[in-house]
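Appendix B.2, paired examples.
Example (i):
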Amino acid sequence: MEKGKLLETVKKLKEEKRKFSQAIELVVTLKSIDLKKDNLNFFITLPHRVRGKKICLFSEKSIPGGEGIFNQIVVKEQLPSFGKKEIRKLAHDMDFFVSQAQMMAPVAASFGRALGPLGKMPSPATGSVVTKLDDATLRELVERLNKTVRLRTLKNDTSLKLAVGNQNMPDGEILENILAAEDSISNALPKGKENIKGYVLKTTMGKPIKLGA
């Protein structure tokens, strides 16, 4: 995608006025993809945060100051107190789950059936299984997860969609997010850019604008 024209499109989308700050979304249309064979499900990390994510930590014991880093902390002794409804609610409320490495077995036993199908089990793929619980390590992880996006193809939908910005973000940050997403998605596809049919940029409520591949 050519940077100059892309920046013009970003500026145009930011001019669309609503009573709220709209997300700016990138839609990548795919081609030559067999959804049964090439089931895409991967994570990419953008240079700039688009929106804050809700993140829960599973740890053996409470962590001093942890409430200021995570939206919720569940310690080992609390696991038996979660019923099926509470587990499902927490699974849907949170965007990411982080687990202390030695907590993975009890977390899988208690929360696996709820988190697994949603793709939210703590995973080395997102760096969300940790051995260190010091303040600096956890803050760095949370900052990275706030920039991380999960992408997957859904049944009969050969496109990938993600928010790359919002109308309150600087133009340059949105541009950098778009270009980073383009590279990361291309690298994750079986045949790279050959699997990309085209790109569309749009606001939450606006009309899509086609971009050059």
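Example (ii):
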Amino acid sequence: MIKQAFPPLPVDQWPARDRSLWQAARQPSGPFDDDAGFAARWRSPTMKMCERGYGMLVGWLDRSGQLDPLAHPCHRVTRDLIRAFITEYSVGRAETTVASAVRGMAYVLRACAPPDGVDWLTKLAHRMTNTAKPSRPKLPRMVRVADIILLSDRLMDIGLEELRRSRRSGAPIYRDGLIIGLLAHRPWRRRNLADLRLGHNLLVDDFGIRITIPREETKKGVAFDGYVPERLKGATFTYLDRVRPVLLKSGIPDESWLWIGRQGRRMPANDISIRVPKTTRKHFGRDLSPHLFRDCAATEVALERPELIGMTKHLLGHMTPVSSQKYYNQATSFTAYSRHADVIRKLRGEES
């Protein structure tokens, strides 16, 4: 089979009954109201994931002539239908991508017919999510946190030296080094990192540089309130005082975003996702996405202090410690992978 496009049907083109139920599910309310929709408190990324997944299902049904616009959304879904959708949609796509689509449609149905929706579909979505394998193995791309920190320091040193020579090119080098250093110490998701803004969620007080991320802005609904690590406090002040002004450009209003990118404007999350892997690929020979820093940090805890593996819940901003065992297992594999590489290097040395 050939990979096919699955454009999601926009919400305003869903069948009227589907739109009405979804709108009711999203209906907000005050603390004393009892008529809040089931999905009223879902965060924006969750909403987008749901609308995309369900939109792909409805669009696929419409294009294949299987859509009954008058049927209740939950009555429209059968095991055979979902099996056929997954069979077609899986071609050329990662397991995680397919699982996300199924989870989106399951959550929409659950919101339209709370609290269960289509129970077997919700269970299927969770099972697929928990067993999905990434399209690219993580272990061969992972790097020890100590090496990441050394790279961060080196980049900031290079950036400052370039600036001392009046070379503006040193500013983005320093910025990228600081971003990598922060990710090594505080492995936030890229969107939260990109959303840091002076005077809003990043404040300077008597104790240092404080960062606050409310639960509404995090993927798992876990707030963050803490300080830039002491080790990076001086480097962050240097960025604010000496580097960031170089990145800004005259004529472009300063909207107080921490990270300044091309043309003196805010550096969006997508640009961070490009710059960080590009930099690590140049120095390590492997690309570390911002999200992979989370695996590196948690696996490092499992390697060095396995008795503290439970702290990964707080380190990564998870609601439960379910992921702890995953990182412990990953650490075991990482150790085996490293030892195997050492054996290969020794064998090559003996042969030469």
